[in-house]
Amino acid sequence: MSEDQSCILHHFSHYCSLSTAEKALLVSLEESPTDIKAGSLLWELGDPAGEFCTLKSGWAYSYRHLENGDRQILEIYLPGDIIGLREFAFSQRLESVRMITDGVICHFPHKRLLEVFRQSVPLTSVVFAITSRHQALLTERLVTLARRSARQKTAHFLYEMYLRLRQTNSHTDGQFRLPLSQEQLADILGLSPVHVSRTFSLLSEEGLVFRDRHNVTIPDLQALAAVGEFDDCYLNDDVRPLFELSA
Q1: CA-CA distance, 90 to 49, in Å (whole number)?
Q2: Angle CA(129)–CA(131)–CA(137) in degrees, nearest 5?
Q3: Which of 221, 167, 229, 188 shows the shortest CA–CA distance to 71?
Q4: Res 126: pLDDT
Q5: How far apart are CA 58 and CA 35, in angstroms?
């Protein structure tokens, strides 16, 4: 696989500059890609956990089902993300993961991560940065679920997705594809599907967000960020200053 085709390389390059050897090591993690259909289950809660996977293309989500049948979506995974990092120290899966769209995944065992740690300090730092960001995303999601209004929840989530997509695609320009159903959005935001629909209608009436099926347009990014009371500090994940200090 070439460097230009590697989503994980684009993702890691967002954090710091990489050497030729480090780029080759990352590209090797995307060997033997597997096509996978929308709706496919990658693993279930309680399954043995002995490997990660990189999401070369497509979207996925992690979730937990409650005893009453409700579902809470925990995290959205985008192209270039590593899925399963939180389970590195566990023998069983802590959550279920399912594809949102058709995509391509590349499995690699935990021991491959140890190779990364042995061969590259910068890549090790980036892995820790990615793990820290996953934790920050979950913390922010908890605050959203517990304390923000439906209008704030939706604005905050949309702006967050825009920023995350912009990290690997600088040409989003206030427009992006959001391949989530009404039910999936409801399970992310802790709302009912009807409430999600009403909230999007309200944001549209205010001229803040326009949605045409799975296509989202944000005319004024700063206005939407203000509505969501968005502070992007938890997405500020540039680790370059660490290497400048150690130089």
Answers
A1: 7
A2: 100
A3: 188
A4: 85
A5: 10
**The length of the chain, given as a count of residues:** 247
pLDDT in tens, 95-137: 999 999 999 998 888 888 888 888 888 888 888 888 888 888 8
Which tokens go with 59? 């979207």
Q: How confident is the model at residue 14 (pLDDT cuts 50, 70, 90)?
A: confident
Amino acid identity, position 53:
C
pTM value is 0.87
Query: Taking a C-beta distance cutoff of 8 angstroms, is the pair 64, 71 a contact?
Result: yes
Q: In terms of DSSP bridges, do strands 175-177 and 34-36 run parallel, antiparallel, or are they unpaired?
A: unpaired
The burial of 126, by beta-carbon neighbours within 10 Å (0-12 exposed, 13-18 middle, 19 or more buried), is given as: buried
pLDDT, residue 17, reads: 81
Return all residues near 162 (Cβ < 8 A) that are at least 6 apart: 172, 174, 176, 218, 221
What is residue 245's predicted lDDT score, i.e. its pLDDT? 47
Rounded to whole angstroms, how far apart are CA atoms 84 and 136?
A: 16
Tokens of 8: 């994980």
Contact assessment for residue 86 and residue 139, using Cβ atoms and an 8 Å cutoff: no
169-181 pLDDT, tens digit each: 756 688 999 999 9
- With residue 176 as reference, give the H or E element that holds it: strand 175-177
Dihedral, CA of residue 148, residue 149, residue 152 and residue 155, to nearest 10: 110
Which DSSP state fits 46?
Answer: T
| pLDDT tens digit sequence for 138-179 | 899 899 999 999 999 999 999 999 998 887 775 668 899 999
DSSP class of 86: G
